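Lecture 7 notes. Example A: sequence first, then its structure tokens.
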Amino acid sequence: MDNETKKILTIHTIDKRMTDRKSPNMEKAGFEAALNELLEENIQVKEVVTDAHLGIGSIMKKQYSDIHHSHDIWHAAKNLGNKILKVAQKKGNNILLDWSKDIVNHFWFSCRQAKTYEEFVGIWRSVLHHITNTHEWIFSHGGVIQCMHGELTEEERTKAWLSPTQHANVLKDLAAVVLDKRLLNNVGYFLNFR
């Protein structure tokens, strides 16, 4: 589908028999057939947006490195939400259930706002401070950073804040998700906010 016009440019239906009866290979085969058809028709493809399918990522790096590859933010946010819910279901972490939607929304915001890896990480990791009612903190390089929202009204303060001491284990578990190396290694796929 073309991102600007929303018109379907090509569609390919793949049967398991076309991929040695291996259904996991179907998405990759269909993607490759569709992209090759577009390129053979001399359609200039500047960017491809997919979910985080590892096989497609590999094809993009090896065969189509001149085309920018982005990940669909909806899929990334859904996967992140599932990871946060899994952490929230861990014994003693149920306070995160109230915050899970807000954390995922903050991920969306970070992807939309950031234009560079550094900007993304700065905005994204601020959620770890925000949920403790800390809206200004000292950055590791000595500078002062603050949340991007303005003064919070009483209506906006409906959730219980996490205490850095009382909820230290909860924050540690959440930080493992927020600062996950695989997530941070994929930031380049999110910066076009598709």
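Example B, a different protein, same format:
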Amino acid sequence: MGKTSETHDLPLLQAQTADSSFKRTGNLWTAVAHIITAVIGSGALSLAWSTAQLGWIAGPLAVLSFAAITLVSSFLLSNCYRTPDPEHGPGRNRSYIEAVDLSLGEKRAWICGFFVQISLYGTAIAYTVTSAISMRAIKKSNCYHKEGHEAACEYSDTSYMLMFGFAEIILSQTRNLNNVEWLSVFAAIMSFTYSFIGLGLGLATVIENGYAKGSISGVSTSSSIQKLSLVSQGLGDIAFAFPFVLVLIEVQDTLKSPPPETHTMKKASTIAISVTTFFYLLCGSFGYAAFGDDTPGNLLTGFGFYEPYWLVDLANACIVAHLVGGYQVYSQPLFATTEKWISGKFPNHGFLCKDFHLKVPLIPGFRLNLLRLCFRTIYVLSTTAIAMVFPYFNQVIGVIGGLNFWPLSIYFPVEMYFKQKNIEPWTRTWVMLRIFSLFCFFITLFALIGSIEGLIGAKLS
């Protein structure tokens, strides 16, 4: 009997040993940097267009509503980082899927895992598309400056996507999210830089025009069906711009304790979402006020702004630099989950589990893991290939936003909260959260359908 007990406890002891050997050095400000890097991405560039589809009242209101929903879901989810275990006491959940598994069971963990991996993968595709558009915009900006605004400055995205993919293959060899804190800090600085530039250019254009363009109803269309489709795509783009719950627990797992990780994460979420919402409102509003019905799908690459061309170039360079880091923040959790699963299936396979120490002349020594090298290279190549097939900015991010918002930002956090707090059915809290979840479900479904229709239409046109 004693032998059976020792065998049963061995995986737990190994996990505790591995967990204790993992040094967590993150604090409030590194968490804020990770969150800003995850939240402010390619979605921020479409907010002026989204505001234009919804109009002056519904547009800003939608941004504030999605921000509030994201903050609530982040609070619910951060409580799930440490889950009580009846046998062994509180334990850490190293990922979103682990938290769902322990709280809701293996079946729903598999469902959650599907949405998480698809969403992380989709975000990597969106970042590849956006980075290529920004690199192309730099080339076009210089061309317009030399040849005039009416010149035929057309360039392919393909070479720029390949360049971005090559950079991500190299950066993807970093072991985990804890090893790219510096990249998140740098990317957060870049995101603030291009947000300020976009905001400044929009404000300058409004001042130059002498009045704010736009209307209460938003962009006018030829039919109500077309208007409904554009509104749904706008909501999908706003949904994509906010949720960072895909990587919340992974970010929380980088935090040192004390203070408790939950307290630090809630404070970091509040700071980061408040700051990004403020910028989102300003960028969306000034972009719409500057261009009205002619608001471009991407504020900094749609060439509503031509001059000063060097400032447009700088903004797009900052976008690319930010997306290089953002790609890793979203991809590293997927790398960790997949490689952990593969290593668990083949624990004694030297090719998959062994690190090789290499020393190349003039370069510091480094460790090479063949599983990491092969899997992550194939992953980056696949996201690059799909981005080449669907290089449609607003439609792609709308589909991804509509796909992941309700299940990952609403459903699973709410269900885990019910489980952990033992919320009884038909109590006030239960009813309110059910209504909240149902409302978000219909909004997400509406956004997803419209964005898929827009993507198909863009591909066929």
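Note on Example B: Strands lie at 82-83, 91-92, 355-358, 366-369. The longest helix spans residues 106-147.
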